[in-house]
Amino acid sequence: MTAAGANTAVEKDAGGWGPYPRALGGRVAVYVALAVLGVLTGTAGTLVQGGWFPLGLLLALAAAVGLFWGGAKLCRTKVGAAAPGAGWVLAVVLMTPSRSEGDFLFAAGIASYVYLFGGMLAAVMCTTIALPAPPVRPGKNR
Questions:
Q1: Which of 56, 125, 134, 138 has its CA 20 to 30 A from that of 14?
Q2: How far apart are CA 7 and CA 2, in angstroms?
Q3: Are 68 and 61 contacting, i.e. CB atoms less than 8 angstroms apart?
Q4: Tens of pLDDT along 3-45?
């Protein structure tokens, strides 16, 4: 068997599992897009959690968790969850301080702290959860 035939056999046995997409440039583009989505989700969540108190907080946290876990499942890597988590944290931390005019986005209530620490905890949890191993065809050994 030639070397090209061996590579083809290995790719067929792998079943297409692994980080998506396979090319490094494509993965970097997906990670950057996930980070931008993290910034947008953090910005929207900051506005929604204070505006519609109980349901807005739940909606903002659900959107953040969905983005973090979706990034991990899409890319099948931990960086897939860390990239939107970093974008989310960046957006939220930049919106935390109040301005000299007295304007602020985060009130000093429990809802703001639940959003801040709950979102950070969700990002860490989605990043550190072990992703399931790709399935192995019956009769194959690991």
A1: 125
A2: 9
A3: no
A4: 554 444 444 444 555 556 667 788 899 999 999 999 999 999 9
| Spatial separation of the C-alpha atoms in residues 92 and 27, rounded to whole Å | 25
Distance between CA atoms of residues 12 and 110, nearest Å: 53
Residue 118, C-beta contacts closer than 8 angstroms, at least 6 positions apart: 61
Q: What is the CA radius of gyration of the chain?
A: 20
pLDDT tens by residue, 42-86: 999 988 988 777 899 999 999 999 999 999 988 888 898 999 999
Q: What is the DSSP letter of 105?
A: S
Would the CA dihedral through 52, 55, 58, 62 be positive or negative?
Answer: negative
Q: Give the residue from 26, 37, 32 showing the smallest Cα distance to 18.
A: 26
**Listed residue (28, 134, 122, 130) closest to 66, CA to CA:** 122
| Cis amide bond preceding 21, omega within 30 | yes
Distance (Å, whole) CA 86 – CA 14? 31
Region of residue 124 (phi > 0: left; psi between -120 and 50: alpha; otherwise: beta): alpha
